[in-house]
């Protein structure tokens, strides 16, 4: 029983808190993502558009050291979640993202992250 507990604890501390693979090395996706706007005011939403898909962006952060209990990675951020949101929208050839909602979902035990920010929105194609 002690061995099982030791193995579980070891696995938790070996697992590093890290960001998702954002695929920024794909130049087409990166260029398209840089042009996508996140429209956060209802008054700015275009009159004619089609929703292509729901997209999600997640930021992880704040892994704690085992000895001092201090964070050794930056906390999750809305900006990082927005970057992933834009990259995912670019993958479906979206022009913009609307109806974005973000939430700090707290600890992600599977990644050993103490802060998690999740943003979800609708990737749209604007009709001209």
What does this structure look like?
- The structure is a single chain.
- The protein has 128 residues and is an alpha+beta fold.
- It has a single domain, classed as Translation Initiation Factor IF3.
- Helix content is 28%, strand content 28%.
- The chain contains three helices and four strands; from the N terminus they run H-H-E-E-H-E-E.
- The model has no long low-confidence stretch (mean pLDDT 82).
Under the CATH scheme, which class? Answer: Alpha Beta
**Looking at the structure, what is the overall shape?**
elongated
Write the H/E string, N to C: HHEEHEE
Roughly what fraction of the amino acids lie in strands? 25-35%
Cα end-to-end separation:
65 Å
Report a brief summary of the structure.
The protein has 128 residues and is of the alpha+beta class. It has three helices and four strands. It has one domain (16-126): Hypothetical protein apc22750. Chain B (Translation Initiation Factor IF3).
């Amino acid at each position: 029983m002690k061995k099982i507990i030791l193995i579980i604890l070891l696995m938790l501390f070996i697992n590093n808190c890290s960001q998702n693979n954002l695929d920024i090395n794909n130049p087409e996706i990166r260029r398209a993502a840089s042009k996508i706007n996140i429209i956060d005011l209802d008054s700015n939403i275009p009159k004619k558009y089609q929703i292509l898909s729901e997209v999600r962006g997640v930021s992880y952060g704040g892994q704690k050291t085992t000895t001092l209990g201090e964070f050794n990675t930056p906390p999750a951020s809305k900006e990082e979640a927005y970057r992933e949101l834009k990259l995912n929208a670019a993958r479906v050839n979206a022009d913009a993202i609307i109806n974005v909602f973000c939430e700090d979902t707290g600890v992600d035990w599977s990644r050993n992250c103490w802060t998690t920010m999740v943003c979800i929105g609708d990737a749209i194609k604007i009709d001209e």
